[in-house]
Amino acid sequence: MAKLWAVIRREYMERVRSKWFLIATIFGPVLFGLLLVLPPLLAIRTKASAALSDIRILDATGTDLGARIAHAIPRTPAMAVPEVIRVSPDSLTAAESLATHAVVRGDVGGYLVLDAHTLTGDSARYAGRNASSLSDMQDLTDVTRRQVLLARLLRAHVDSAAAAGLADTRLKFVSERLSERGRGGSGMLNAFAGMGIALLLYMSIILYGQTVLRSVIEEKNTRVAEVVVASVSTDTLLAGKVLGVGAVGITQQVLWLASGYLMARARAPILAAFGAHADTLALPPVSPGALAALLFFFLLGFIFYSALFAAVGAMVSNEQDAQQAATPIILMIIAPMLFLQTILLNPSSRTAQVLSWLPFSAPIIMPLRMVVTTVSWTEVALTVAGVLAACAAAVWVAARIYRVGLLMYGKRPSLGEVARWVRAA
Amino acid sequence: MAVRELSLTVPRGAVYGLLGPNGAGKTTTIRMLLGILEPDSGTIRVLGLPHRDRGVTDRIGYLPEERGLYKKMQVRRVLRFLAALKGVPAREADARITRWMERLELRTPERDWGLAKVDELSRGMQQKVQFIGTLLHEPELVILDEPFSGLDPINAQALIDIIVELKRQGRTVLFSTHLMESAERLCDAVCIIAHGEKVLDGGVAEVKAKHAGRFVALVIADGADRAEPVLRDRTLVKHAGDSNRTLEVELAPGADPQRLLQRLVESGARIARFELVQPSLHRIFLDTVGATGVEEGVTGHG
Question: Do A8 and A14 meet the contact criterion of CB atoms below 8 Å apart?
Fold first, then answer.
């Protein structure tokens, strides 16, 4: 045990002391902080230059609807009110083609067409360069809808003050996830949290799995392996390596999660300091239990993959060969990431379920599903059992390959030779 | 198969040489002693215990032929790690590291190389660090695989001093080499192996005595050409090794040295020296292993 501890301590301390660990550990939260603070800050600037005040309104309704909309479009005081052209229904086609030319020439950003169908509350049309901007279209739709409603209320002889009050319906829509375990957070927030967790797991497993690979190759290349295995068994060395590097990974994740949490809490004051308004950012509803599950699945996935990476490291003698030999393992990790969007869109689909059960993808997909949807505890327990069995198998095979391969140099062994190592060891 | 049915006994407290040409199976034998490799059959007992017994490996110090350390690690931390692998408490290890580093001039008032990273050290210094790592846990049995390869004369002498000191402390030293001169100077007993099989073993004096009386050191002052036919007579001379001025002559089986001297005198050559000598280990090695057992590596006159 003391020897295992010595191996673990060396792997852990040498990595935590390195500059890279320091940089990655600081850089992660800084990046996260920028992601939280920058978009709202940028939004203030982009709102001020929004293309919506730069549009032409073709009003063929014969009312002042166009002018009302023009004044209701959000803009800063420095911006001009959008140009309104009142046309007769007959000359609307000609006005539209003129407006099209104006957009193409770049004189205006787009044009809004209001006609008889608009007044009946049926339709309005917009064409412009910014038609694919979700937020612009959302704003324009909102304004138009309110003004049409107001106009129709007035026509129905509703008192103008009352009409204005009724039309000003800015409904803020809040969605919340509801499951048999109770309510928790908004749907969007959950999806983001799920994706973040999947990415975090994916990155850490690949990063630290390859760290194990490099660590094995380093001991082989520097020939220090022989001194070490004269003092400890290869099994102890392998276990110490995996646990030591894994502990580094967990240290980093805990630091990241903690600083991410602190930064999310400090977001409002920071934004306020820049003079930007911050909606209170609801933190993803990740309970301590889910966090524990996250770390547990990281540990499982890491043990499974790092055992395989260690076996690859023992098989080869240099980094170039290692890159090639490790490709199948990396593909196994990447495969579930290709389905990430499908799974997020429908976390209860068959694809999502199967991927969250298979041992090679479960460590990434199961925690994701646990955050975005409800997974029964029996399902989780069965998955954990499956992954544990896969880990045991991977460690068993890896230990055997490692035992024989560690002191072998030269040509990369064929699969047949490796199979013989596994049987013979 | 690298080693076949090798059976040898290393006396406690002795300096023991495992000799053999490259590829003879020395490293394989050593790795089996250490439990890195398992023999297909047979038993190994180290320090009176089965070699894989718990605690046995902690009493052995091992310097492999292919030497190397963690390149990016601080020297003192590497040594602490190696000591911890052998179960030396950290405080004790630190004191020993300091002592050894001072002795081998890796820690001087001007510079403490213990704070440097391994790859900042010269090759010679790295080898010293590796020796220290081998000896930090004060092993009862020290196993050195080709310890002299790649050493400059100063480090080689430092190593010889250390081996002698270890013996004086009552420790057993087993080292492999293909350099006969260092073996002859250092070893109490040797085992010569070739092609994975033992050729001979025993105490150095004993081995030499067994081959004594068969060798003549011959110096011819004048008329060497006249002595030539005599030396080529296979009934008298099995082999005459020419080492420039002194000829090392091995007598043919059953040949009488007296008869050889007589024939040489009769040939008219002037004899400056004719002496029955003990053969060098090098000579014995060449004779016993035979030219076929020597693939490469036996260089110079050992």
Answer: no
CB within 8 Å of chain B, chain A residues 167-226: 218-219, 221-224, 226
Q: Which of residues 79-98 of A touch B (CB under 8 A)?
A: none
Same domain, A109 and A244: no
Of A9, A221, A227, the CB nearest to B133: A227
Q: Which residues contact A411 (CB under 8 A, 6 or more apart)?
A: none
User: Hey, are the CB atoms on B82 and A227 less than 8 Å from each other?
Assistant: yes
The interface predicted TM-score (ipTM) is 0.78
Same domain, B60 and B160: yes
**Domain boundary residue among B150, B179, B204?**
B204
B85, A232: Cβ pair inside 8 Å? yes
Q: What is the reported pTM?
A: 0.72
Establish if B84 touches chain A: CB-CB under 8 angstroms.
yes
HSE-up of A224 (CA within 13 Å, CB side)? Answer: 24
Is B62 touching A (CB cutoff 8 A)? yes
Looking up tokens 């360069």 gives A129
Q: Does B34 touch chain A (CB under 8 A)?
A: yes
| Local confidence pLDDT in tens for the 302 residues of chain B | 567 777 888 888 899 999 888 888 888 889 888 888 878 888 888 888 887 777 888 899 999 988 889 998 999 999 999 999 999 999 999 999 999 999 998 998 889 999 999 999 998 899 899 999 999 999 999 999 999 888 888 888 888 999 999 999 999 999 998 888 888 888 999 998 888 888 888 888 888 888 777 788 888 888 888 888 888 888 888 878 766 678 888 888 888 888 888 888 888 888 888 888 888 888 788 877 765 444 444 333 33
A326's tokens: 């490790």
**Rounded Cα–Cα distance for residues A171 and A161 (Å):** 19
CB within 8 Å: A223 and B36:
no
- Write the CATH number for A120: 3.40.50
Asked if residue A92 and residue A230 are part of one domain, the reply reads no
Contact B73 A230 (CB under 8 A): no
Q: Do the Cβ atoms of B81 and A2 come within 8 Å?
A: no
Domain range for A145 is 52-167
Cα A384 to the center of its chain, rounded Å: 24
Region label for B55, one of left (φ > 0), alpha (ψ between -120 and 50) or beta (otherwise): left
Judge whether B20 lies within some domain: yes
Could you report the per-residue pLDDT of B237-257, keeping only the tens digit for each? 887 876 667 888 888 888 888
Structural domain boundaries, residue B220: 213-277
Considering CB atoms only, which of B58, B70, B87 is closest to A224? B70
B70 part of contact set with chain A, CB < 8 Å: yes
Mutate to test the interface with A, among B70, B117, B149 (most CBs of A within 10 A): B70
Q: Does A407 touch chain B (CB under 8 A)?
A: yes
Query: Who among B31, B57, B69 is closest to A231 (CB)?
Result: B57
Nearest to B68 among A6, A222, A232 (CB): A222
CB contact A319 to B (< 8 Å)? no
Interval A322-357: pLDDT, tens: 888 899 999 999 998 888 888 887 888 888 889 989
Domain contains B59: yes
